[in-house]
Amino acid sequence: MPAPRPNGGLLRANVHDELRHRFVTGKVVPGSGLSTRGLAQELGVSQMPVREALSRLAAEGAVEIRSKRRIVVPPMTAERFADLLRCRELLEPEAAALALPHIDAARLKRLRVVDDALGAALESGDVQSYMECNFDFHFLIYRAQPRTTLSQLIETLWLQFGPYMRVVYGRFGTANLVDQHERAMRAIRDRSAARLKRAILADIRDGMRLIAKSGFELGT
Known about the structure:
Blueprint (H helix, E strand, L loop, with lengths): L11 H13 L11 H8 L3 H13 L4 E2 L5 E2 L5 H22 L5 H20 L2 H16 L5 H25 L7 H10 L3 H21 L7
Antiparallel strand pairs: 1-2
Helix pairs in contact: 1-3, 1-7, 2-3, 4-7, 4-9, 5-6, 5-8, 6-7, 7-9, 8-9
C-alpha cells in the first residue's frame, strides 16, 4: 500500500501506484468519471501528481484523457479483448513457470493464506474481496521470478481489463467460478511447471470469458 505523508496524503511517487491498484482490482469501473480535482482531494495531494499519474495511465492504456474534465476508461471492443486475451495467454503462464523454482516455503505459505481468503470470497459472493485476492494470488506467483519487466508488462494488461472484470463479477456473481487457483496450488506443491501453466491458462480464460459473455457493451 502507498505510504501516507504525515498530513494524511500520499507521497508523490505513490499516487501512480495507488491509482494502478484501483484499476487492477476493479475499484475503478467503466462509465465512472475520473476527476483530477476529486482524486487529488481524496488522496490528499495537489492536482499535479494526479495529473501526471493519469497521463502515465493513459500511456499504459488504462484511461483515455478526452479533455481536462473528461477522463474515462476506454471501451472494450472485440478487437481490444482479443489482443488482451492473447497477450495474457502468452505472458502469464510463462511467468508462472519461470517463478516456480523461486517459490519458497514462505511464499507458498502466503499463497495459502490468500487462497483461503479467495475461497471465502467466492463462497460469500464478496466481489471486491475476490478481486483483491485474485490480484494478490497471481502476482505473488509472477513476482517470484526475477524478470521484473515481465511482471510489469502483465500488470499493464491487468490495468486494462480490471475495471471490466469488476463489472462482470458483479453481474454474474462468483458462485459459479471454477477455483483454478486450487489447481495451481497443487501444481506448485508438486513442482509441476506444465500443470501450473495449464491452471493459470484456464483461470485466464474463465475470467476473460465473462467479459466476452457481456457482449463488450460494458461502460458504453
